[in-house]
Amino acid sequence: MRSLCVYCGSNTGRNPIYADRAAALGSRLGHDGITLVYGGGNVGLMGIVADATLAAGGQAIGVIPQQLVDLEVAHTGLTTLEVVDTMHARKMRMFDLADAFVALPGGFGTLDEMFEMLTWRQLGLGDKPCAFLDANGFYRPLLSMIDGLVDEGFLHHAQREDLWHGDDIDAMLAWMRAYRPAQASKWLDGKRRPIAR
């Protein structure tokens, strides 16, 4: 694994543990020689994980839409900063650059980006590992809801097992390095509705 895409908040959140976890992850990436791929911001957890990666001697690639550059939230001290036209282009470019994906605590944007990667993987558009790196139980309610999707027949058990969740950086990176994608079909009942003609 040469690069890791990190999705996280453009705010730091109310609990200092979120910033601590972002800094710990960035430091680990820098020390391990894993390139950080992220949204290119200089604010919130985004700025913290980038600064920690760089401070540990690592490489950090930011991908940011022009709209956010115009709002002056781009990190100008990165190894590489790529400016794209749209949020959709940003997601695609980050997908191309990264070998794996992890979500630290964040808001709508963080969840949107991670769930799009999970959806692409479910549809066979990618086979890269995805993980929620927790802090202070932040993602526990979300993972309970995902377990409910399995219980209610909207998600394969194998696809739920294909998603890592925990708070141990060592365990997460070990899981990513050994990752083999699930082979379950998206369609639980094996049937697809006929296409109307």
Structure description:
With 197 residues, the chain is an alpha/beta fold. The protein has helices at 16-32, 44-55, 66-70, 87-97, 108-122, 140-151, 157-161, 169-177, and strands at 3-7, 35-38, 60-65, 80-84, 101-103, 130-133, 163-166. The protein has a 7-stranded parallel sheet, sandwiched between helices. The radius of gyration is 17 Å and the shape is globular. The model has no long low-confidence stretch (mean pLDDT 92).
Strand content: 15-25%
Uncertain stretches of 5 or more adjacent residues = none
Number of extended strands: 7
Rg value: 17 Å
User: Helices and strands: which structural class?
Assistant: alpha/beta
Terminal-residue CA separation: 46 Å
Helix content: 40-55%
Q: For the largest beta sheet, what order do the strands appear in spatially? A: 4-3-2-1-5-6-7
Largest sheet: 7 strands, parallel
What is the topological layout?
Layout: E1 3-7, H1 16-32, E2 35-38, H2 44-55, E3 60-65, H3 66-70, E4 80-84, H4 87-97, E5 101-103, H5 108-122, E6 130-133, H6 140-151, H7 157-161, E7 163-166, H8 169-177
Parallel strand pairs: 1-2, 1-5, 2-3, 3-4, 5-6, 6-7
Helix pairs in contact: 1-2
Tag the structure with descriptive keywords:
197 residues, 44% helix, globular, alpha/beta, seven-stranded parallel beta sheet, 8 helices
Task: Write a compact overview of the structure shown.
The protein is an alpha/beta fold.
